[in-house]
Structure to design on (357 residues):
C-alpha cells in the first residue's frame, strides 16, 4: 500500500525508487550521504535544512554545493501546495499534491494557546465509517513519514508561523500506517529538527486494538484519542465496521492499558448524530459505560457530508447530552467546528480538488 514502484515520478534520475531522504533519521541520512561520497558534516546541515528550517526542496539549501542539491532533490518526496481555502474563522485548509500526483488535505488552525495542524496519515481511508467523507473511495495508499512531516513543514513555510500542536486526525487511520507514524513522531520531535513537544501530539484511532497495545509499548507520551461514537456494540456496529472486529469493552481496556503504560490522559471522541446516538437514553448508557474510566469526552456535533443523511441536533440537544454525562462525573467538552464553511471540519476531508460536500 506504499508508493507504487511503477510510477515514474517516484524515481530518481537513475530510474530507481527515490531514497526519500526526508524520512531518514540523522544517522541514516549520514549513511546515505557517505555512500554517495559526501563528507560527514553534510548530514547535520542537510538534516537541519529539512527538519529545522523546513525548506521542502533541496534547491533552497544555500550552503550545500549546487550539484549535491540537485542530487538530493531527486531523492525527495515533495509535498506541494495545490490550492488553499481560508475560513471566516481564520482556519486554512490546504490541498497538497504529492510526488505521484495524489492529493491530501491538511488543516491549519489558530488557537489562543498556539497554532495547531491536523494532518492526514493515509491517502483515503479503508475503515468505512458511515458518517465520514474521508473513507468514500477507500484507501489509495499509506503516506510516508516524509509526507506527514511535509504537511507540517509546508504549513509552516506557507503561513510563516510555527506550529505547536499536531493532531493526526485528518484522512486515514494512523494505526493502519503504524511504522511510518512512529517514524514521523520520532522525527518531528527530534531536538535537532522541528523539536515539537511529544506531549503536543494527538493520535486519533477508530480503535485498532492490537495497535493501541503496541503504541503503549513505544512509551511515547502522546495523547491517544478513541473514536467511540456509541455506548453499545450493537449501535457502534451500524456506524463503524471496526466494531465488528473489536468490542467496546476490549477497546476501552486497550486504551486503559495505554494510560497505565504512558500516564497520558485518554480522550474519547463522540460525534453527535441526531436521532441516532444523541438521545437521553443513549447519554445515560454512555455515562454508565464511561463513569470512572478517566476519559475526557469530546463531543463533536456531526459535520454534514453530502453523501450521507447524518445531521447534528439543536444546541439544546447537545447541551442536554453534555449535562447528562457530567452527572456521571465525566469531563466533557464540545468541540468547536472550526473551518466548517470550507469543509475542513472533522470528517469532511477528502482527496478531491473541487465539488462540495
Ligand atoms: N481514523 C481516525 C482519525 C480520523 S477521523 C479515527 O477514526 O479516529 C477524526 C475524527 O473525526 C474521528 O473521531 C471521526 O470519527 C470524526 N468524524 C468523522 N466524520 C465526522 C463527521 N462527519 N462529523 C464529525 N466528526 C466526524
Amino acid at each position: 500500500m506504499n508508493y507504487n514502484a511503477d510510477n515514474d515520478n517516484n524515481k530518481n534520475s537513475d530510474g530507481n525508487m527515490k531514497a526519500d531522504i526526508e524520512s531518514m533519521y540523522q544517522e541514516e541520512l549520514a549513511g546515505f550521504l557517505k555512500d554517495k561520497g559526501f563528507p560527514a558534516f553534510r548530514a547535520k546541515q542537510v538534516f537541519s535544512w529539512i527538519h529545522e528550517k523546513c525548506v521542502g526542496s533541496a534547491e533552497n539549501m544555500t550552503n550545500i554545493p549546487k550539484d549535491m542539491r540537485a542530487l538530493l532533490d531527486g531523492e525527495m518526496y515533495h509535498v506541494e501546495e495545490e490550492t488553499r481555502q481560508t475560513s471566516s474563522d481564520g482556519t486554512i485548509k490546504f490541498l497538497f499534491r504529492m510526488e505521484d500526483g495524489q492529493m491530501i488535505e491538511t488543516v491549519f488552525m489558530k488557537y489562543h494557546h498556539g497554532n495547531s495542524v491536523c494532518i492526514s496519515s493515509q491517502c483515503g481511508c479503508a475503515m468505512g465509517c458511515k458518517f465520514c467523507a474521508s473513507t468514500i473511495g477507500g484507501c489509495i495508499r499509506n503516506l510516508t513519514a516524509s509526507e506527514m512531516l511535509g504537511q507540517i513543514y509546508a504549513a509552516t513555510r506557507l503561513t510563516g508561523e510555527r506550529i505547536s500542536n499536531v493532531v493526526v486526525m485528518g484522512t486515514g487511520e494512523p494505526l493502519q500506517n503504524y511504522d511510518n507514524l512512529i517514524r514521523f513522531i520520532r522525527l518531528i520531535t527530534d531536538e535537532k529538527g522541528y523539536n515539537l513537544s511529544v506531549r503536543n501530539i494527538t493520535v486519533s484511532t477508530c480503535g485498532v486494538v492490537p495497535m493501541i497495545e503496541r503504541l503503549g509499548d513505544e512509551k511515547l507520551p502522546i495523547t491517544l484519542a478513541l473514536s467511540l461514537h456509541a455506548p453499545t456494540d450493537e449501535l457502534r456496529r451500524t456506524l463503524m465496521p471496526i466494531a465488528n472486529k473489536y468490542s467496546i469493552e476490549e477497546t476501552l481496556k486497550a486504551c486503559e492499558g495505554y494510560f497505565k503504560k504512558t500516564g497520558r490522559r485518554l480522550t474519547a471522541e463522540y460525534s453527535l448524530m441526531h436521532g441516532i446516538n444523541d438521545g437521553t437514553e443513549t447519554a445515560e448508557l454512555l455515562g454508565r459505560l464511561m463513569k470512572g474510566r478517566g476519559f475526557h469526552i469530546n463531543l463533536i456535533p456531526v459535520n454534514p457530508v453530502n453523501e450521507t443523511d447524518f445531521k447534528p441536533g439543536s444546541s439544546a440537544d447537545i447541551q442536554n447530552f453534555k449535562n447528562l454525562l457530567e452527572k456521571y462525573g465525566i469531563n466533557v467538552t464540545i468541540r468547536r467546528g472550526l473551518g466548517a464553511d470550507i469543509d475542513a471540519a472533522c470528517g469532511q476531508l477528502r482527496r478531491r480538488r473541487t465539488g462540495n460536500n
